[in-house]
Automatic annotation (TrEMBL):
HAMAP family: DXP_reductoisom. It comes from Halomonas ventosae. Keywords: Isomerase, Isoprene biosynthesis, Magnesium, Manganese, Metal-binding, NADP, Oxidoreductase. One of its GO terms (molecular function) is isomerase activity. Its cofactor is Mg(2+); Mn(2+). Residues 268-384 form the DXP reductoisomerase C-terminal domain. The gene is dxr. This is 1-deoxy-D-xylulose 5-phosphate reductoisomerase. Mn(2+) binds at residues 152, 154, 228. Residues 148-236 form the 1-deoxy-D-xylulose 5-phosphate reductoisomerase C-terminal domain.
Amino acid sequence: MTISRVTVLGATGSIGTSTLDVLGRHPDRYRVHALTAHRSREALLAQCRRHHPAVAVLDAEEDAAWLRGQLAEAGLATEVLAGSQALVEVAEAPEVDCVMAAIVGAAGLLPTLAAVKAGKRVLLANKETLVTSGALFMEAVARHGATLLPIDSEHNAIYQCLPVEHRGGLGRHGVRQLLLTASGGPFRGWSREALAEVTPNQACAHPNWSMGRKISVDSATLMNKGLELIEACWLFDARPEQIQVVVHPQSVIHSMAAYSDGSVIAQLGNPDMRTPIAYGLAWPERIDAGVEALDLFQVARLDFEPADEAAFPCLRLAREAMAAGGTAPAVLNAANEVAVEAFLAGRLGFTEIGELVARVRDARPVVPAKDLETILEADVLARRAAHAWLVRQ
Ligand SMILES: NC(=O)c1ccc[n+]([C@@H]2O[C@H](COP(=O)([O-])OP(=O)(O)OC[C@H]3O[C@@H](n4cnc5c(N)ncnc54)[C@H](OP(=O)(O)O)[C@@H]3O)[C@@H](O)[C@H]2O)c1
C-alpha cells in the first residue's frame, strides 16, 4: 500500500485532534508531514512527540524557538517554522499528498488555496475559504486538478448522497433539492427575549457535537447553518433556493439529497467528526474511524421541523448574502467573526450578533469578488465597520 503524506493545518483544534486520532489508527497508510498551530505550543509539542512530523509550525518566532528547544531535548528531528508563509509552505510542499484545512477563520484562506493550487487532495473543514472566496476557490480546484473533499459533516453527507460526478448544476443529475440538516443548537425553541440573556458558556455547550468556541456560538445563532448553506451552493453548484434547512435535533441524519423521482438519500451516523474525516482521507475507500456503529434502536426516533428564522435571523442573513453574490458573503463572515469575538468577550449580547451583522451588511457595498485582494479588502472594511459600531455602543 502506498503511504499518503498528510499536512494538518490547525492540528491542535477540535478537527485537527480528531484527524490525528484517525491517522494514528492507520500507520500503514498515512505519515504526518506537518502539524500547525497558532499559539498552542504545548499541545503541538505533545502531538510532535506522538506523530513525529517532519515540520511543525507556530505563529510567533518566540513560540517556535521554545518548541525547537523542547524537541531537541526530546531527541526529535522535527523542523520548526514560524509565521503565515510557513503555513503556505507546508500546504504546498511537493512531498505532501493530502492537506487537512482545519485552521479556524480567515487565516486558513491562503494556505488552503496554496494546497489547491499545488493540486493536492484537500480535506476542507475551514468554512471561511468557501464562504468568502467560493467562486475563486472552486475555479482554482478545477484549474489545478485538486481533489476537494468536504469535511463539514453536512457537506460530507451530501457528497456521499450525490452521484460521483455531480458538477454542472444539480438539475442535470436529477437532484431536486439538498436538505441541509441542523440540530437547532442549544436554544432551539427559545424566544427572542430569552435569547437576549444567553451567556457565552451556555452558547458553547452544544447538545450533540463537541466543537471549538467560535463554531459553537455560530451553531447557537444558526449562522453556522447559514455559512453551510453558502458552502453547499459552491460545492454542489446549487442556488440558495435549492437548499432547504431542516432542523433535526438528534443529529443522526447529517444531510440528504432529494431526487426528481421522489427518492431521498440520507447519510446517517453517530455525531462524530472522525467519520467525515476518515471518509475524506480514504475516499473512495472506507477505513475504520474509531466511531461506534450507529444503534438505530437506541436512536428510536427522528424528528424534523423548520428553522425559526424570526428568532434566529442569521440564517436569513446568510441566504440573502449568497443571493446578493460578490463580496456580500465575505462581509457577512467578517462582521460575524467580530460579533462572535465580542460576544465571547462579554461585550455584546447574543441577539446583538445578528443585529451587528445586519448593520455592517447595510453599511458596506456589494462589489464583484473578482480577485483575492478585493475580497480581503471587503473583509478588512467590514471588520472596521463592525469594530466602529462596537465602540459606539
Ligand atoms: N469542530 C467541528 O466539529 C467542525 C465541523 C465542521 C467544520 N469546522 C470548521 O473547521 C475549522 C476548525 O474548527 P475547530 O472547531 O477545529 O476550531 P478550533 O478548535 O478553534 O481549532 C482551530 C485551529 O486553528 C489554529 N488557529 C487558530 N487561529 C489561527 C491563526 N490565526 N493562524 C494559524 N492557525 C490558527 C488553532 O491553533 P491554536 O490551538 O494554537 O489556537 C487550532 O489548531 C473551522 O473553520 C470550523 O468552522 C469545524
